[in-house]
């Protein structure tokens, strides 16, 4: 993760695909820092570059995100601009109607708009599918109507993190190869606010402490010992539905917690530091 005062048009040294744009720096004077990072993979695939801009509303953050996405695309990288607001600025600049599914704007450039009310539906559907196999709620979850659910405080960040996970692969090895629609070299994210974006990026590291206390509750209390394994299996089945097979089937609760801890640790270490 890197904070810098230049636009993210020149990737950091941690990004294996090196390129440089020639432009007049006097014409571009951003008034806010940027954050760049890359997730490492254990195979020969190139990591997905994640770029975001920080700043208050009206500071040109969205314009800079669109500008950076266009330049990454013009350099030959398959780029996706992810917008988490209803601001139509990007639609006007790209001359495209940006919706909740990736829209191709031009060669190598796609754009998608995150809407929390729509993002709630997919995880709920996966939980219903998992519950149908495990029969944990005995049909109660099947009766939940996603369209009736409202957006609570904090949901914007949580569901945007789930969507970015599909695009970048923070928590696991890149599984988007099986779905070309979500296979990109660069993700440029125009988030809601600076504070939420920073918390989102540091979530995997901070979540390890919460996981530690949740494990204590699950192992030291009667309720935890009774319900913990079933809830863990439901969560795992929901997260992995339609992507990769579960790695927790047949494992003891302690092994499941160890694997969750390892997943967060690996995710935290996968954020490479670089300064543009």
What does this structure look like?
It comes from Helianthus annuus (Common sunflower). One of its GO terms (molecular function) is hydrolase activity. The chain is of the alpha/beta class. It has a single domain, classed as P-loop containing nucleotide triphosphate hydrolases (Rossmann fold, 3-Layer(aba) Sandwich), CATH 3.40.50. The chain has nine helices and seven strands. The protein has helices at residues 61-74, 89-94, 116-119, 121-134, 155-168, 194-201, 203-220, 222-240, 253-269, and strands at 2-4, 34-38, 49-53, 79-83, 103-106, 109-113, 186-190. A seven-stranded mixed β-sheet has the order 1-2-3-7-4-6-5, covered by helices on one side. The longest helix has 19 residues, at 222-240. The N and C termini lie close together (11 Å). Residues 1-30, 40-44, 242-246 and 272-276 have low confidence and may be disordered.
Can you give keywords for this protein?
7-stranded mixed beta sheet, disordered N terminus, disordered C terminus, Rossmann fold, 7 strands, alpha/beta, 276 residues
Provide a concise account of the structure shown:
It is built from nine helices and seven strands; from the N terminus they run E-E-E-H-E-H-E-E-H-H-H-E-H-H-H-H. It is of the alpha/beta class.
CATH architecture: 3-Layer(aba) Sandwich
Q: In percent, how helical is the residue content?
A: 40-55%
Q: Number of DSSP strands?
A: 7
Secondary structural class: alpha/beta
Query: Which H/E pattern describes the elements?
Result: EEEHEHEEHHHEHHHH
Which spans have pLDDT < 50 for at least 5 consecutive residues? 1-30, 40-44, 242-246, 272-276
